[in-house]
């Protein structure tokens, strides 16, 4: 994959030495070209970007990729999802070490480009650019008014919809996803590319190139490695990247920032984390604020300074963030930021050896509490669990129900599928219990498995037979049921 950077020569006039930036890019192993007056004459992109798989345009102040710049990149054969704009002069304003921040921002874009998973035509949806968007006079007569947004597609092999998983459907604020016959369908016209469904899917079955968890994670890791103790600001595409000691990590929407991403940012050396959004209509503000409040509550419980800034709304595309202290921090690798187990890994990394129990409505995890006296080990909960947190197996004449806390996302599907839920057989406690997280998989219920005396096939658990006898009374012969399986009952003795 060819990653190419086009660098505007004019950044030299903004105090950023072009020679140093070129040398840094060469160390990163990418192609780099300097273009004179690239910002006022962006039509050069159409020629200079030819042959590139991934394109990064380093401008002075222009930060929006959609529109004129994207059109010229498309003319060069670059996919809109493989195109980034890095406004070096804008983001380096007010930073005490501007060259270092410029290099860090370029490294973030390069690593994000290398994490690009590839795209298919079905991942693109055209949309009309707003009329107030400013373009050059040359572009006014030559460019299309169309731009493109990424939309998710479903990886059928990973999707657990057939088992009852509806996490993406429940998360989507625009009802763009629906389930039909065990298959998740997308209504393209309703999708706004917010990415909330992508981050919510525990199996990473939703793919949205350009905003995939792998790309966001790569950019975050680069920001921590090269940012040297600056703050991390998660921003949506409608917001101009902030200056000063903030490194901007781009996300499709504020709702697509996971707890794992927030906590790993702090674990990786960020002095503060800002969570910013444009005045969008995602309808998930309460969810985002609950997530942030959980992170702050977790930090407070650990005796740490809760340096997670409340959700910031941008006005006119700009954000007003406080200035964090610039500190020297060493680079730290981070774990996955999406998928089952990601949030648990981040929480365990942050809490270390601390024993902590924290109940919170914004917690991304939960604990399945099984009442062994009511559970009949029918296995419905295990087969409906979208993450495998609940597991069922039979061995040595017994049935076992097990639970792995790090995989539980507190979705409640196990409770919904349990035929004995009214008797309290299973419940979900939402929150974090570090002792339970460290236990690993443990057995929460077990019982003797009754087998057919004729063929040896399993019949049911002893508790299940007892429960049926209690429900059906004299109409049910537990002795006959326990002796023969369904197939053998119709055979002559």
What does this structure look like?
- Among the domains are: 1-149, Rossmann fold (3-Layer(aba) Sandwich), CATH 3.40.50; 359-447, 2-Layer Sandwich (Alpha-Beta Plaits); 450-489, no CATH class.
- The chain has 493 residues and is of the alpha/beta class.
- The strands form seven sheets. It has a four-stranded parallel β-sheet.
- Helix content is 30%, strand content 21%.
- A hairpin with a 2-residue loop joins β8 and β9 (183-186).
- α1 (18-27) packs parallel to α5.
Features:
493 residues, alpha/beta, Rossmann fold, Alpha-Beta Plaits, four-stranded parallel β-sheet, elongated
What is the C-level CATH assignment of the domain at 1-149? Answer: Alpha Beta
Q: Shape from CA axes?
A: elongated
Largest sheet: 4 strands, parallel
Distance between the termini: 70 Å
Class based on secondary structure composition and strand pairing? alpha/beta
Could you outline the blueprint of secondary structure elements for this entry?
Layout: E1 3-8, H1 18-27, E2 31-35, H2 45-48, E3 54-59, H3 68-75, E4 83-87, H4 88-92, H5 98-114, E5 124-128, H6 137-140, E6 146-150, E7 153-154, H7 167-171, E8 177-180, E9 183-186, H8 196-200, E10 206-207, H9 213-227, E11 231-235, E12 246-250, H10 259-267, E13 273-277, H11 285-301, E14 312-313, H12 342-351, E15 357-359, E16 366-370, H13 380-384, E17 390-395, E18 398-403, H14 413-417, E19 426-433, H15 434-439, E20 442-451, E21 458-461, H16 462-472, H17 478-483, H18 486-489
Parallel strand pairs: 1-2, 1-3, 3-4, 11-12, 11-13, 13-14
Antiparallel strand pairs: 5-6, 7-10, 8-9, 15-19, 16-19, 17-18, 18-20, 20-21
């Amino acid at each position: 994959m060819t990653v190419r950077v086009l660098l505007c020569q004019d950044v030299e006039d903004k105090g950023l030495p072009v020679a140093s930036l070129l040398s840094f890019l060469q160390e990163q192993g990418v192609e780099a070209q300097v273009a004179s007056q690239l910002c006022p004459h962006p039509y050069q992109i159409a020629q200079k970007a030819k042959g590139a798989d991934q394109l990064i345009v380093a401008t002075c102040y222009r930060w929006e990729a959609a529109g004129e710049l994207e059109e010229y990149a498309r003319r060069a054969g670059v996919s809109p999802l493989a195109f980034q704009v890095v406004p070096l002069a804008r983001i380096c304003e007010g930073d005490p070490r501007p060259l270092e921040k410029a290099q860090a921002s370029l490294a973030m874009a390069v690593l994000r480009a290398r994490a690009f998973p590839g795209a298919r035509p079905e991942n693109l949806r055209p949309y009309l650019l707003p009329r107030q968007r400013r373009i050059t006079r040359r572009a006014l007569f030559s460019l299309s008014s169309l731009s493109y947004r990424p939309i998710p597609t479903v990886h059928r092999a990973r999707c657990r919809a057939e088992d009852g998983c509806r996490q993406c459907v429940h998360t989507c604020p625009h009802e763009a996803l629906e389930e039909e016959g065990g298959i998740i369908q997308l209504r393209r016209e309703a999708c706004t590319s917010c990415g909330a469904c992508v981050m919510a899917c525990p199996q990473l079955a939703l793919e949205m190139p350009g905003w995939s968890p792998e790309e966001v994670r790569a950019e975050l890791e680069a920001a921590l490695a090269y940012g040297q103790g600056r703050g991390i600001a998660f921003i949506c595409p409608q917001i101009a990247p902030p200056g000063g000691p903030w490194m901007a990590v781009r996300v499709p929407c504020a709702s697509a920032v996971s707890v794992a991403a927030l906590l790993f940012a702090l674990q990786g050396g960020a002095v503060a984390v800002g969570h910013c959004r444009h005045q969008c209509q995602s309808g998930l503000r309460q969810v985002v604020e609950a997530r942030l409040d959980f992170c702050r509550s977790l930090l407070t419980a650990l005796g740490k300074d809760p340096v997670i800034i409340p959700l910031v709304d941008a006005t006119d595309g700009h954000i007003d963030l406080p200035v964090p202290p610039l500190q020297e921090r060493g680079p730290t690798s981070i774990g996955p930021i999406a998928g089952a187990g990601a949030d648990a890994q981040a929480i365990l990394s942050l809490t270390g050896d601390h024993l902590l129990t924290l109940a919170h409505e914004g917690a991304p995890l939960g604990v399945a509490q099984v009442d062994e006296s009511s559970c009949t080990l029918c296995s419905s909960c295990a087969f409906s669990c979208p993450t495998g947190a609940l597991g069922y197996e039979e061995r040595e004449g017994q049935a076992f129900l097990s639970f792995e806390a790090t995989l539980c996302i507190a979705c409640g599907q196990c409770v919904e599928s349990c035929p004995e839920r009214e008797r309290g057989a299973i419940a979900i406690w939402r929150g974090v219990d570090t002792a339970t997280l460290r236990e690993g998989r443990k057995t929460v219920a077990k019982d003797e498995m009754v087998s057919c005396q004729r063929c040896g096939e399993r019949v049911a658990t002893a508790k299940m037979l007892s429960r049926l006898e209690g429900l059906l009374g004299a109409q049910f012969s537990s002795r006959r049921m326990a002796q023969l399986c369904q197939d053998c009952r119709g055979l002559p003795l």
